[in-house]
Design a protein that fits this description.
Oligomer: single chain
Number of strands: 23
Helix content: 25-40%
Structural class: alpha+beta
CATH class of the largest domain: Alpha Beta
Radius of gyration: 22 Å
CATH superfamily of the largest domain: Conserved hypothetical protein from pyrococcus furiosus pfu- 392566-001, ParB domain
CATH topology of the largest domain: Conserved hypothetical protein from pyrococcus furiosus pfu- 392566-001, ParB domain
Number of domains: 2
Largest sheet: 13 strands, mixed
Shape: globular
Strand content: 25-35%
Length: 421
């Protein structure tokens, strides 16, 4: 029996409610600005304390505002109800219509979530989380009775079949129920399908036909467990539909001067090379990081990255040779060698901002040069095949190490929890 199911009662956007997920922002002020420009955005519900009319309230105190907004939108036609559906999903990159991403919105069994090799389940969650964010997701679901943004899952067993089947279904589905253009120009389109249709039955079977890896939504999936939800809202997609962009760090207040940090890194075995003035910072090579203070940049060869030789720490043909490879991944090294040992910062420290691939290297350096941050740390992206291999081996990825694109759009398909039982 498949672990992927129809949405018993969905609310389908009629336009204007689409939103980036609540955790895609480097600056909370961006959320406020987006909601001010588009009051119907689901961000006003997902992050109620950042909506213009609720500023100054805590997340908990702003929850009644979220409930009121969603109730109004269900009445005013911002969403249309749909019973017992699976929803086709296609995302087109600007200028690349022949290279679309495909997925389906559906519900997935929460009991199938596995976080370790000795925990059974077909849904693999792979990353450490920040428990405060999880609690907020639990509280939002309990208050509103709905899930507004999906967990992004990669199908690893029957991925090629699923990709081809969704593409074929979209080709004959006609005009989409709604389209939505995101902040970088991607077009997101959805088509609800009756769950008892032959196409929907086939897609659910394919989507549940192998292990599913949480690509985005670790907090939301854990919130489903803590909140006691029988099922959670997901977009099931395929490795061919996604890419992983860099995931950098920005230090707003550094407890250690850059010169002292570099000395500590050298003492730990790193090699440090200054970047010539005018040399634009780019994405570093694997095994390196790029540190940028005010108008000064340094390439740092991370010490452990040069030690894990050959077969004792490698991913070969998509398989883990040694589970310790995760400890040698660049994001893990930065967390351990640069943040903890070099700066004395724990990962949850509020002085660390995790900056995803939607923000360019130039944006990060500008934040430092403008005095809004003291240090930018650039890290090379993880390969999709390596990410899948680590997960299938039930190893845990370093925290905030994968910025998948395209991300599943929030506010397009909502799941009504009262209908899920």
């Amino acid at each position: 029996m498949t672990v992927v199911h129809p949405i018993a009662r969905a609310w389908i956007s009629t336009g204007g409610t689409g939103a980036r997920n609540y955790d895609e922002f480097a600056d909370d002020a961006e959320i406020t600005a987006i909601v001010a420009a588009n009051p119907e955005s689901a961000l006003a519900i997902e992050m109620p304390h950042r909506a213009p009319g609720s500023l100054g309230k805590s997340f908990a105190n702003a929850l009644p505002d979220a409930v009121a907004r969603l109730s109004r939108q269900r009445v005013d036609g911002s969403y249309a109800p749909a019973e017992n559906v699976i929803v086709l999903y296609r995302t087109d990159e600007p200028g690349r219509a022949d290279d679309a991403a495909y997925g389906i919105f559906a519900m997935v069994d929460t009991e199938q979530i596995s976080t370790s090799a000795d925990e059974p389940g077909l849904v693999i969650r792979n990353e450490d989380v920040f428990i405060e964010k999880v609690r907020e997701r639990v509280a939002l679901a309990e208050a509103t009775g709905h899930l507004l943004s999906p967990v992004l899952l990669l199908q690893t067993g029957r991925a090629r079949e699923l990709h081809a089947a969704i593409a074929a279904a979209v080709d004959v589905a006609g005009a989409p129920a709604v389209t939505d253009v995101d902040h970088v120009g991607r077009t997101h389109a959805i088509w609800p399908l009756p769950a008892d249709s032959a196409t929907a039955i086939e897609l659910a079977a394919l989507a549940g036909g192998g292990e599913l890896v949480v690509a985005d939504g670790n907090h939301r999936s854990l919130a489903a467990q803590i909140g006691g939800l029988r099922r959670f809202l997901a977009v099931v997609t395929t490795p061919a539909s996604v890419a992983i962009q860099p995931y950098h760090r920005l230090i707003t207040e550094s407890p250690v001067a850059l010169v002292e940090l570099l000395d500590r890194l050298r003492a730990a075995g790193a090699s440090v090379s200054p970047v010539q003035p005018g040399d634009e910072p780019g994405i570093p090579a694997q095994g390196e990081t790029f540190l940028y203070g005010h108008q000064a940049g340094y390439r740092v060869r991370l010490p452990a990255a040069t030690d894990g030789a050959g077969e004792d720490g490698a991913i070969v043909d998509g398989a883990i040779v040694d589970g310790a490879i995760v400890d040698g991944m660049d994001h893990a090294l930065v967390e351990r060698v640069v943040l903890r040992d070099g700066l004395g910062l724990e990962p949850g420290d509020k002085r660390i901002t995790y900056v995803g691939g939607d923000y360019s290297p130039q944006w990060l350096t500008a934040e430092v040069d403008a005095g809004r941050a003291e240090l930018a740390i650039f890290i090379a992206p993880v390969a999709v095949d390596d990410f899948v291999a680590v997960n299938l081996a039930r190893q845990k990825m370093p925290r905030k190490s994968t910025w998948f694109t395209p991300k599943a759009r929030g506010g397009l398909v909502l799941a009504d929890l009262a209908a899920e039982g």
